[in-house]
Design goal:
alpha+beta, three-stranded antiparallel sheet, 8 strands, three-stranded mixed sheet, elongated, about 190 residues
């Protein structure tokens, strides 16, 4: 039942779309997760249990660990796009000639060229595009690793085109990882 004076009251605030541990404190965080009010995304970020986390939520969870000059790539980017297997170690990519990150056991830093079209901005975090992520997984992942194959299969459902990736390999002639990538991508293209 509404009050006849309800129009005088300010509208109720929208519920938060994400919750960070610092918002509710460590004890409140654990209680909300345990009671099912929140669904854990990664690190110190969760979403209300009534909604599914999306790529922007997953990228936002990584934000405290990703400096602005780097790009999330490989298996970590596959997780951001698909939500399958959360990363244990972050794969971070740096443009050649830029200052590398300090050593940290929670991340692997690789140096590689990153054309503008290969990078998506999800919130405040830069992540390799779905197409670039699939190409990198095919190129640098083990062709027999089931985790890589499952991630590639999930990327197919998000718009990854293995035929376009095979064409992109021709521009990388003479670089490493191309033979394995051709085999994996040819199998994906064949269905």
């Amino acid at each position: 039942m509404t009050s006849p004076l309800a129009w005088l009251l300010p509208p109720p605030p929208d519920p938060p779309t994400v919750v960070v541990c610092d918002d509710v404190g460590p004890i409140g965080w654990q209680v909300l997760l345990r009671d099912g009010a929140l669904q854990h995304v990664w690190g110190d970020l969760a979403v209300p249990a009534s909604r599914r986390p999306g790529p922007v939520d997953r990228a936002r969870a990584l934000a405290p660990h990703v400096p602005p000059r780097v790009v999330v790539g490989r298996m970590a980017a596959a997780w951001v796009h698909t939500g399958l297997t959360p990363p244990v170690i972050l794969d971070l990519l740096v443009e050649p000639g830029r200052r590398r990150l300090a050593p940290d056991p929670s991340r692997r830093t690789r140096e590689c060229p990153l054309p503008r079209g290969d990078v998506d901005e999800l919130g405040d975090v830069r992540v390799t595009s779905i197409q670039r992520t699939g190409l990198d997984l095919a190129r640098w992942g083990s062709p027999t690793d089931p985790t890589v194959l499952v991630a590639l299969d999930a990327l197919l459902g998000r718009g990854f085109d293995p035929c376009a990736a095979l064409d992109a390999l021709t521009q990388l002639a003479g670089q490493r990882g191309l033979r394995a990538a051709r085999d994996v991508l040819a199998r994906l293209a064949a269905g």
